[in-house]
Design goal:
Chain lengths: ~120, ~140
């Protein structure tokens, strides 16, 4: 069988590994997820008095926990791409850039774990 | 061999902008929106632990909910909240503008300027309303 191999021949990719495109699209997709989640929470909160009962009840169903976790993970991925761009634009020494990027990734992973605890404790 | 290295001139470095120039540079309004989008994004990243902590307090228990209410009663905390909300709203509204630009909507100079003005026309009044809410006017 002959497989068509992308990246070879007249349609070969000539620049980069295209991580940038994945980041570009990922940042836009996560921004839409975040906006929709904000609308969901915003509509739920704006109509009706805000007390602990109504606020905690909003996050009580499993589907809301899952949706909120997706939103929070989207936020962390969105923040990663944004911060990576900032480090790449302004920090030129490789050791400093790599250190800051590493700290950013580890910190965001920690935030992800924390987010799970926050949501599943309700 | 050493004579070759001795004659070698350091390559000139061309930077498109430097710090003193930055202070007098008249950035066009879409450029202001752009850099503020970046600054507000970085600020939101830095204040992410505060936001998660507030979410945690608000959801953990009725006691922690009331504790958060007590913390937000502080005027300095209210000011920080308003700044955060401003940063967020700017980031949100400017972000929607960028999504439209990505779809090639309004990329000509005139409409790009108009939408940059629209970002402020939307985000600043929303921030003002949020500030009134934070300070308990309504």
């Amino acid at each position: 069988m002959v497989h068509s191999v992308p990246g070879i021949g007249s349609k070969r990719l000539v620049v980069g590994a295209h991580y940038g495109l994945a980041g570009f699209i990922g940042q836009r997709v996560t921004s839409i997820v975040l906006t929709l989640w904000l609308l969901l929470v915003g509509v739920s909160v704006l109509f009706g008095p805000l007390s602990y009962e109504t606020w905690a009840a909003l996050f009580a169903p499993l589907w809301m926990k899952v949706v909120s976790l997706i939103a929070l993970l989207s936020l962390l991925y969105h923040a990663w791409i944004g911060m990576r761009n900032i480090w790449m634009d302004y920090i030129s020494p490789v050791w400093a850039r790599l250190s800051l990027q590493t700290i950013t990734v580890l910190w965001l992973i920690a935030c992800a774990v924390w987010s799970v605890q926050i949501l599943w404790r309700v | 061999m050493s004579s070759f290295t001795a004659e070698k001139q350091p390559r000139p470095k061309f930077r498109n902008i430097n710090f003193p120039l930055l202070l007098t540079y008249r950035l066009p309004l879409p450029g202001v929106v752009s850099i503020m989008h970046r600054i507000s994004g970085a600020a939101l990243f830095l204040l992410l632990p505060l936001l998660l902590w507030m979410l945690d307090l608000s959801l953990m228990s009725e006691i922690s909910f009331e504790r958060l209410r007590g913390i937000t009663a502080n005027v300095l905390f209210k000011l920080l909240l308003v700044l955060l909300i401003w940063g967020f709203l700017h980031h949100l509204v400017a972000g929607i503008r960028y999504l439209l630009l990505d779809l090639h909507l309004g990329i000509d100079l005139k409409s790009a300027r108009a939408s940059a003005i629209a970002v402020y026309a939307v985000s600043l009044p929303l921030t003002f309303i949020a500030a009134l809410k934070v300070f308990g006017v309504f």
